């Protein structure tokens, strides 16, 4: 079974609108971490935001917020006020309680922001 | 700029050859991770080193090997290359403290390997 599922291969949004990118995860661990990374067309992987499984508040970093619903095992990324530079591939990833902090990635969602 | 450097940026080689990819972690980071990104397999964890020692192994082929040196830079060696090894290879680094799920990994720009 896939540990990280991103069901949206592609999303379109207009500039200045908000967009939600979906991520569900599968783990039997109580302690885990969830991450979102952005990969623009240039190829680099840029860390965006982190949510710990014991964090009570949803994580926020500037225009990025993580809608964490533990019971539903979802960790959706919300980008507010989209900008043209947000067009990229977005990956959800999980680090489980193995102690090693290695990441398991989803297949990604391609976001296109139009003017 | 994440602070993680990788060389070379691009590598074109032939089947059967051997190549070495190099990575320097962020200052202060003790852990180095290698990932492979291909169209069919997506992003896959290959191997992790912590302060010079192998810590975790993922889907790494026997033809591939890695090491981390005393100055903490790491090298990924790929040998007997096949067409299917063509991919983007990322190095990432983190503080590496055991069991920390807040241990964010910062990625280098990647090395794009093309095997012809």
Low-confidence stretches of chain A: none
| Silhouette of chain B | globular
Please state the structural category of chain A: mainly beta
The residue fraction in helices of chain B comes out at under 10%
How much of the polypeptide of chain B forms β-strand, as a percent range? over 45%
Briefly note the structural class of the backbone of chain B. Answer: mainly beta
Form type of chain A: globular
Mean pLDDT of chain B: 93
Q: Give Rg of chain A in angstroms.
A: 14 Å
**Main sheet attributes: strand count, strand direction, barrel closure of chain A:** 6 strands, mixed
Helical residue percent band of chain A: under 10%
What's the pLDDT, averaged over the residues of chain A?
Answer: 94
- The count of helical stretches of chain A stands at 0
* SSE order of chain A: EEEEEEEEEEEE
Tally of DSSP helical segments of chain B: 0
Q: What is the makeup of the main sheet of chain B?
A: 7 strands, mixed
How many DSSP E strands of chain A?
12
State Rg of chain B: 13 Å
Your description of this structure?
The complex is a heterodimer of chains A (115) and B (116). With 115 residues, chain A is mostly beta strands. Chain A is globular and about 40 Å long. Chain A starts with a strand and ends with a strand. The model of chain A has no long low-confidence stretch (mean pLDDT 94). With 116 residues, chain B is mainly β. In chain B, 0% of the residues lie in helices and 52% in strands. Chain B contains no helices and 11 strands. In chain B, the strands form 2 sheets. In chain B, strands 2, 4, 5, 6, 9, 10 and 11 form a 7-stranded mixed β-sheet that branches. In chain B, strands 1-3-8-7 form a 4-stranded antiparallel β-sheet, with no helix packed on it. In chain B, a hairpin with a 5-residue loop joins β7 and β8. The model of chain B has no long low-confidence stretch (mean pLDDT 93). Chains A and B meet through β5, β6, β10 and β11 of A and β4, β5, β9 and β10 of B.
């Amino acid at each position: 079974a896939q540990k990280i599922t991103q069901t949206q291969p592609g999303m379109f949004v207009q500039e200045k609108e908000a967009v939600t990118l979906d991520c569900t995860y599968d783990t039997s661990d109580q302690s885990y971490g969830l991450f979102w990374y952005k990969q623009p067309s240039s190829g680099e992987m840029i860390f965006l935001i982190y949510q710990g499984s014991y964090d009570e508040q949803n994580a926020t970093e500037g225009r990025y917020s993580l809608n964490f619903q533990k019971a539903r095992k979802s960790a959706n990324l919300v980008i507010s006020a989209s900008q043209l530079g947000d067009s990229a591939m977005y990956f959800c990833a999980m680090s489980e309680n193995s102690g090693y902090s290695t990441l398991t990635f989803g297949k990604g969602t391609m976001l296109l922001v139009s003017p | 700029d994440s602070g993680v450097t990788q060389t070379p940026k691009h590598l074109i080689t032939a089947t059967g050859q051997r190549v070495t990819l190099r990575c320097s972690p962020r200052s202060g980071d003790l852990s180095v991770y290698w990932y492979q990104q291909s169209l069919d397999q997506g992003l896959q964890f290959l191997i992790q080193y912590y302060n010079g020692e192998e810590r975790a192994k993922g889907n790494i082929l026997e033809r591939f090997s890695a090491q981390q040196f005393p100055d903490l830079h790491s090298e990924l060696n790929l040998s007997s290359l096949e067409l299917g090894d063509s991919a983007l290879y990322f190095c990432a680094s983190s503080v590496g403290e055991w069991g920390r799920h807040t241990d964010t990994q910062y990625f280098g720009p990647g090395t794009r390997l093309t095997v012809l």
